[in-house]
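Researcher: Next entry in the queue.
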Amino acid sequence: MSEENAEDTRSNRSAEYGHLVSMVQYEGNLLWTVLGAFLVAEAVLLGLLGSSMADVSGEGALCRWDPLVFVGGILGLLVCVPWWACYHRNSTYYEFRMAQARRLEDDLSYDILSSGKKLSEGHWVPMDGRCYRMPWMSRTLRTRRSGRALIVLFGVAFAALIVVSGPWW
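Model: Structure for this entry, 169 residues:
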């Protein structure tokens, strides 16, 4: 391969890397936008249902038949399903784009995303005379795991509303 062809290939790979980094940013923004949209919708619904459960009768009974809360709880629980699916789809795309970009880093002698991956895995990463390491809690509660836990928490909250407001009381 001639020197000119090698430079063209490197230039093409560098442009591809730039496009992939842009796609990583896009996928990351999309992931957080979708997560935020579902989170706001579910939080508002949960708050409305929780307020409507306030005891206006003075009897103090938490568990009572409340059709509005019961149906709302079912709706909230059902919305957790597409939220889970969208979150996993977007997370997978994000991780896929990161892997694609990291694949090119060896060819280009870049270490941007690869060193970030090492950092996220808990390795010490030297940079400018200083070593960085991700704290234990941040390594343990990664974004994907935390997102799943959030969705499950909302699911449990809606399931609890269904239980305490069902027709069996």
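Model: Helices lie at 3-52, 67-108, 112-120, 136-140, 143-165.
Researcher: Noted, moving on.
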